[in-house]
## 1
Amino acid sequence: MTTSSKVFPDARSALDGVVKDGMLLCCGGFGLCGVPDKLIAALRDSGVRDLTVVSNNAGTDGAGLGLLLHTRQIKKMISSYVGENKEFERQYLAGELELEFNPQGTLAERVRAGGAGIYAFFTKTGAGTLVAEGKEWRVVDGETYILEKGIVADVSLVKAWKGDTEGNLIYRKTARNFNPNMATAGRITVAEVEELVEPGTLHPDAIHTPGIYVHRIINGSPYEKLIEKRTTRKRSGGSDAVVT
């Protein structure tokens, strides 16, 4: 494979010189799907602290962003869902962790807007609730809208299925929920992929994130597929089956 200035040998080197204390970080993923696990582990090992992290959720205990919660490197979470994580609950209830709740669609649009250069937008979602407290609002055609600001991160971490050495990315299924928007919202975007290929290998119509948005990329394979919540039931024949 030819070398590229965007390709780094591992997650540690890909984060070298771009992460710092107190930064605003966008992190892709939905549950434990499409999570940049190798980059999160390297971020933990870097020792950076006081992070504000924008992510749909905060991982689970011992996986995803849960690794950074365990080491107390996250100061504030901007999220739409924070279940499945007892350490998150403990820190928040103890006043050790700040939390900014966003409705899921609003969070996705705030990140998308930031990546598109849109400073803010008005939405009806959350009007008249705690979500609207302290925010600008206006009435249009008899409906109340609140102003939500776009999010631009110092660094975005994303996970893709395939990528080429120029940074073009393809995601699979649920991994597309937040990763594409997170990739555009970072001043610096670092991607990890399951398979890294030469330019021209990916069909142009299949690319979800153009390489212009990606500054550094690594091949993170191999990966272990984690299950966020394992639910079992009996088959009709009596044996156990796993429903995921």
## 2
Amino acid sequence: MTTTIKVGVIGTGSIVEMFLDACYQNNMECVAIYSRNEETGKRLADIFYVDDVYTDLSEMLKRDDLDFVYVASPNSLHYEQTMMCLNAKKNVICEKPFASTIQEAEEMARVAKENNLFLYEAIVLKHYPKLSLLEEKCKTIGKIRLIEFNYHQYSSRYDAFRAGQTPNVFNPVFSGGALMDLNVYNIHLAMILMGYPKAVKYIPVLERGIDISGTALLDYDGCTAVLNASKCANGSNLCQIIGEDGYILIPTGTNHIVNFEVHQKGNVEVIDVMENENRLFYECAAIKEMYLNKDYGKCYEFLDDTLDVMRVLQDLRMSSELRFTCDK
């Protein structure tokens, strides 16, 4: 008998539409949508044939049929809303960045573990097919000396920011900016491949208190990871892992690894990664499998990795002048 996992969602942005498409491909049914704006919530509900729309989150969380809640609200709301879900004994998939601070993240993880609940950061690259093969291929290119990851995406809200407005994604109140929204992907992959860095430094381009772009430097023994991200410009998202005996090239960036190339001694091996056009498909499939198998151990391994990334994110911010309202 096929088990249908029932999901409620918080938020109505484009990432939610992609998530819901991935859910339905994995026999996960959305049964409830929370939005502060009822009209926006109903628009999404009509697209995905969801009957119930809420403007009061506490009311949605009273439902007995929610196996998971997907949190896709502005960054600064992740902690409060995830804690509401966990305290209502709901499993949670929380969009990146997991929280604004390491203190918030640790509290979220503590409550999840104490209540035997599943809690995930929605980082798609953690669940990519053949990610383990990428890790294996890194061992074939000799000692890694340099990592260069790029994620440049001109934000749909940047024109408003340039015009003097303060959209959430460019607002220190909402813990926005290039580091938290984009460079988090680069940091996750660098740490998957290299582990926890010896030291970190962040060099942001600050405008009105927020980083519209920036470079994160992660120091490893004999290797530096140079991680660039910008929300104010488009650019090549080409990524390289450079070793003494070859290099690996990821043409499409860390958040959407379609394939990667292994270059050694004049030979090029191209390895395809994704077959499904919706990259969130694999994330949903992995979470569903862990949930049905009650694999809390694997879930909490991912959660511990998320906490390590949150520590690095906070150390990067503290190494610069980038501060959020929640830091005060």
## 3
Amino acid sequence: MVEPIQIDPWWLEFAERKIATATNLLNECDGTYGDVILILTGVLSAMAAKRWPERRIDAKRFIQLLIEFAPGTKTISVPRLCSYLVSCNMIIQARQIWDYPENDFQILQGPNIDINEESIANSLTTPISLKSIRKYSYASLLYNDLRCSYSHEYKIGHDAHAHRMSKSKNACISYVNIYKKPFPFIHFDLNWLANVVRKCASVMLEKQPDQSSVMPTEWWISGGEK
């Protein structure tokens, strides 16, 4: 029998300390985007490891944590998914999801273009696998393009960008074509990511002691239910 997770206010305090450290590093000590990413995604990894304390499941549990505790990260990055489809010569499917411009350098906001997996599935006359769609969720991209890339290579993923693409204070995810056509780079705003960390820590705090960390029958990123 799996022992229940004991949750206390330490998680939220821990997250806020790390967010403050990352903010000070960036604003007062010439820190970089990558430095902040390492700290904040490290906090997410710590929470995921506490929730599901097993070996060799780091990617699955990191993504699962976000899906369960910060459901906005289930959103699918339409430009990134379409880029993948075009690379697989699935141009018709890509066009059905997004009639992307060939030479447009405008800044795109995630909330104005990215959609949920159900909307994507409904747009297609020829289905693609749920696993393929979810690979381009915010949660998955956060793990692969930020957490893994910075942890193992200390550089951002190939299709992501470290520089803020929008001046809007409410920006969360943004895109812009910089030497990359026709699909733009994705940028994850640091304030948005800090709020994702807070949300996960807050839900960890709210979990009752009798709720155990039972392994999902199938992880969300592999096609399972939340």
## 4
Amino acid sequence: MRMGLVARHAELAMDTSFQGHFLIASPTLGDPNFFRTVVLIIQHDESGALGLVINHPLHTTVGETWNRISDIPYENDAPLYLGGPCESPLMVLHCLEEAGKIEVLPGIYFTAEADDLNELVRDQSSPVKFFAGSAGWTNGQLETEVSDGDWLVMPALADQIFSRVEDQWRVLTRLIARLAAVPDLNPKLIPPDPSVN
């Protein structure tokens, strides 16, 4: 079954943008930066790909981090996430269209612009997830890694993006195995935590 899944991903990698998809690290992926990670691909085109690891919380909160870099007070006890090994400005996934630079998938936006971040902090009506660092791939690199079986790929689920489910990697690994076994299963009809099914 694994070979069939890898072959299907290799075929997908040839001509498809992975924007709005989860990359789920294969158990055999050797890079320690991505051990048991779930990456949301923010942008993917001929220049390469940008992603954020969504399941590695840091031992600091968004509020603590924000209050070190801004004069606008912000109480947010959610964890700041390690978005990947590449240095980057503070980045946010959210649902506020007017503060979005990229629509990653319908209703889910990405920004790293200071004005947008200030708007999100002032508004506080949108679910948000803050990241320090990001993951990046050069042109063709991600497609090669997917073809080599380093990553399993599935359409992103909005509930999982903002989830604080413990061991999200395990939950999504099981889900993608179910999808491989039943290819016509619609992931949007699966509950946010399939283990309770």
